[in-house]
């Protein structure tokens, strides 16, 4: 082996605060890289955030399409057909958005 200099004790590296700080920095860097590349969730609230996005897409699509259908019905006097058609279109758009948000396709 190589000649160990004075004051070097390789058996007690676990107690060295510099090495423990380096280990902590490496752990944090690996976690940040995993988050950046999409291999890990950025935080514990990722599921909650995803649920909120899905709920907003569902409610927003349905309410928006119903409002547009109701306005078309009022302007053209086609009650309730435009509302019904727009609701079905809103449901289709909502499901499409939910599939895009989750990133998976149903088989």
How would you portray this structure in words?
This protein has 107 residues and is mainly alpha-helical. The chain has a domain of 57 residues. The chain has 3 helices and no strands. Helix 2 runs antiparallel to helix 3. The protein starts with 16 loop residues before the first helix and ends in a 5-residue tail after the last helix. The mean pLDDT is 83.
Major beta sheet summary: none
| Structural Rg | 28 Å
> End-to-end span in angstroms?
60 Å
Give the overall shape.
rod-shaped
Helix-strand pattern, N to C? HHH
| Structure annotation, total helices | 3
The SS-based structural class is: mainly alpha
- Beta-strand fraction estimate: under 5%
Q: How much helical structure, as a percent, in the residues?
A: 55-70%
Outline of the structure:
Helix content is 69%, strand content 0%.
Features:
mainly alpha; 3 helices; 69% helix
Helix-strand layout with pairing:
Layout: H1 17-37, H2 46-76, H3 81-102
Helix pairs in contact: 2-3
């Amino acid at each position: 082996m190589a000649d160990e200099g004075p004051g070097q004790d390789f058996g007690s590296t676990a107690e060295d605060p510099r090495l423990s700080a380096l280990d902590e920095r490496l752990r944090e860097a690996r976690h940040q890289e995993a988050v950046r590349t999409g291999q890990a969730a950025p935080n514990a609230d990722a599921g909650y955030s995803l649920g909120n996005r899905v709920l907003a897409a569902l409610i927003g699509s349905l309410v928006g399409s119903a409002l547009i259908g109701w306005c078309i019905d009022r302007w053209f006097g086609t009650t309730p057909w435009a509302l019904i058609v727009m609701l079905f279109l809103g449901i289709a758009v909502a499901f499409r958005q939910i599939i895009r948000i989750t990133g998976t396709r149903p088989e």
